[in-house]
Design a protein that fits this description.
By secondary structure, the chain is an alpha/beta fold. 43% of the residues lie in helices and 21% in strands.
Length: 155
């Protein structure tokens, strides 16, 4: 199992759930056949919870994670503007995601796709089931630990 596989499955899930909000330049074919093996994950980069950047695929994923709070006014627009100023001129596709327990719509921007923690758990769980025989025990146990703990938190 690779970061590339998990990332492609996660992005595909986001696209399927949010078809009406997906920018025109982002298509499932581009995701399935893209190369995300160079993806870098940044936490709290310019206050953005999770920022994933793939130079090879010219793709940026913004994830704003809200557990028990809503976004503050203009927060999402500020994050998107910051990422666009850095990557849009380089022809990167940008996919902003608003992650909540229930997959709520964001209040501050209609450009953000919605995603729930349950949907992430489904992607990770399926990936684990399909690849557990090829995974080292330490990685398999860590992923299972993550699944168990997040499941407890969102119930």
């Amino acid at each position: 199992i690779t970061r590339d596989q998990i990332l492609r499955k996660l992005i595909a899930q986001i696209i399927l759930v949010n078809d009406e909000r997906i920018p025109d330049e982002i298509h499932l074919n581009r995701i399935y056949f893209g190369d995300f093996s160079d993806a870098e994950v940044f936490r709290e980069e310019n206050d953005i919870d999770i920022l994933v950047v793939s130079e090879r695929s010219q793709f940026v994923l913004i994830i704003e994670n809200k557990i028990y709070h809503r976004e503050s006014p203009h927060q999402l627009k500020k994050y998107l503007k910051s990422v666009e100023s850095t990557y849009r001129d380089a022809n990167f596709s940008i996919l902003p995601v608003y992650l909540t327990i229930g997959g709520d719509d964001p209040i501050g921007s209609d450009r953000y796709c919605r995603l729930s923690h349950k949907q992430i758990l489904e992607v990770v769980s399926l990936t684990l089931r399909l690849n557990q025989d090829r995974m080292p025990n330490q990685i398999r146990n860590f992923i299972q630990y993550y699944l168990d703990n997040v499941t407890l938190e969102i119930q």
